[in-house]
Amino acid sequence: MDDVARLLKESWTLVEEDRERLSAHFYARLFLLDPELRKLFPVQMTGQGDRLLEAIITAIHTLGDPESFDEFLRGLGRDHRKYHVDPEHYRTVGVALLDALRSTAGDGWNLEYDQAWRDAYAVIAAKMVAGAAADDNPPFWHAEVLTHERYGPDTAVLTVRALQHPLPWRAGQYVSVEVPRHLPRVWRTYSVANAPNDDNVLEFHVRTPAGAGWVSGALVRRVRPGELLRVAAPMGSMTLDRESERDVLLVAGGVGLAPVKALVEELAAVNRTRWVHVFYGARTEADLYGLDGMRELVAAHPWLSVTPACSEDPDFDGELGDIADVVARYGPWTTHDCYVSGSARMVRATLRVLAEDEVPPARTRYDTFGDL
């Protein structure tokens, strides 16, 4: 599989700078091959191609790690049940993908690349189909919005109750959410901001810039208690290692606080010996929407500390600077289990700090959040 991984990464360099063309060709070919597939996608396709490419890139990068590769693809197969994807659809997708890659790559494409993608896609499709077939849960859950609280113009915290069937998740995981009343067939992922509970209630932290956001915009500005959402199967591996006895570092930026809060709640139920250090960063004090709630947890649990920081608020009575720099000032973190959640830029900066502290990669788990 090493040669296949090398050929995939090598050939990807031929198309990665022209993703828009690759995506457009793929969907045009897909819908030409099977016009019925168009019904599975949203009316407005803006952003849909990015999700396809992100999945492809993730699969390529996990190819060298068989366990992660298998877990990611089986989870992706379970998740795609919400789109009503059938096993026969995977063959059509494979034909369209190969055609789009050849066309976009142009003269740089060769038979070795072609065969590597054929082989890799066959494995990807088989694992996704197996993951979907092994899942006894419904393809999605209907969930009623219970509470909706705004924090400024662009952030909301809402709770929902999954109806009819228990929704199994672990602290640190994320789910896809659809707002069918406002944006049918458009899904976006959000981390669950609380640990599992008997009430089947999930909490979400959502941020969207003014005038944008699609699903996030609908969740922040339009959704009200009593409305129904759809929630798909949980995914993600930023979960607690309960066998570890190491202390824990949790780093959150903005709404990246969501999975961090969930992990703290899980630790509250099981922790007896581990010190837990939370670093929570935002631009201004007003953006630290969840700070009061975290301080309540600190008051209840002597093993927990929370260090807030602001990068653009010189009047803030606390740590100043980017959260990654603040984490570096408090290190080293070599002996900790580390969890990082926030924007891609923030996560990259924090991972560099942890690498400089020589934290083993196996002890670091992370999730990235887009701005929308």
UniProtKB/TrEMBL annotation:
InterPro entries: Cbr1-like_FAD-bd_dom, FAD-bd_FR_type, FNR_nucleotide-bd, Globin, Globin-like_sf, Globin/Proto, MRET, OxRdtase_FAD/NAD-bd. Gene3D superfamilies: Globins, Nucleotide-binding domain of ferredoxin-NADP reductase (FNR) module, Translation factors. The keyword Heme applies. One of its GO terms (molecular function) is oxygen binding. Residues 138-241 form the FAD-binding FR-type domain. Its EC number is 1.14.12.17. Residues 1-133 form the Globin domain. Keywords: 2Fe-2S, Heme, Iron, Iron-sulfur, Metal-binding, NAD, NADP, Oxygen transport, Transport. It catalyses: 2 nitric oxide + NADH + 2 O2 = 2 nitrate + NAD(+) + H(+); 2 nitric oxide + NADPH + 2 O2 = 2 nitrate + NADP(+) + H(+). The keyword Transferase does not apply. Its cofactor is heme b; FAD. It comes from the Bacteria. Belongs to the globin family. In the C-terminal section; belongs to the flavoprotein pyridine nucleotide cytochrome reductase family. This is nitric oxide dioxygenase.
